[in-house]
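Hello,

Our lab assistant flagged a job as stuck in the queue for most of the afternoon. It eventually completed. Since we weren't sure the result was trustworthy after the delay, we are filing this so someone can double-check. Below is the sequence as submitted and the structure that was eventually returned. Let us know if re-running is recommended.
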Amino acid sequence: MLVNVMVMALLAQNPAPAAEPPAQPAATAVGPRQGSLVIVGGGQLGPDIVKRFVSLAGGKDAEAVVIPTAAENDPVDVKRVAEGFSRSFGFKNVSVIHTRDRSEADSEGFVAPLKKAKAVWFNGGRQWRFVDSYLGTRTQREIEAVLERGGVIGGSSAGATIQGSYLVRGARDGNDILMAKGYEQGFGYLRGVAIDQHILPRHRTDDLVQVIGAHTELLGLGIDESTAVVVEGDRFEVIGRGVVGIYDGKNHDGKRYYFLAPGERYDLKERRRVSPGADYSPQPATRPRNPGRPASPAVAPVAEQATPR
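-- returned structure --
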């Protein structure tokens, strides 16, 4: 398959460093103390990503909440969002919360569905819309409470980037602006982390180098389409069909990043790979300028019906 060949070539050109004894770990945890995160780099969701999210929620009978607020279209068709999400993930109990009004986001009635939720999903679009509506509100606090109860938070594209503490591409003026004053704070489910998405098809592999250069304390994660990191505690596993770039401010064979393949694991606190690399053979192939991707066997979720960022 062309996609696999291209991934193999990238991994061959940018091999991950061998696992090594960790440096003195930082005192503060990076990942959630309770619960899990499923952070997707955009594109269609394969069945492995869908299955893992549903499993972490406790099954299809779990109460799930989907948040489509990043969408650029107004008004948002809430019924269509709920039906699409239920069809894609199989959840039987789905609620949609959406507002552009911060006072409503701060109200008890608005957050009621979150109080019983075991799963929350952020759809794609523009991440600054999440910030404008929810940052610092009761809604943000109740989403965090889902993690504290052992639930799962997931999201794709803009719904991935918002989960980091540093918000990449948060500018209202366009997603080509990496660092935007006033829009640099994400929801912080991963502390000290900046998350980018669509890194291969949109030719973004070098973009996080600039962000980490300006904010040397951060760790950058660049996630390919149809690929996810599943975070539990301070470690994550790569699943899906693409790669995840690690931007740790170090030099890796002449580049400021390296790639992890599906099945590999990484320690966010110690900033090191904790599993051996996959056995990828070098292939004489490069990713085309406008790569095509075969259709996923899973139905694309509503998250990707919005223009992903």
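-- support follow-up --
The delay was a queue issue, not a problem with the job. The result is valid. Residues 2-304 form a domain with the Rossmann fold fold (CATH 3.40.50.880). The longest strand covers residues 190-197.
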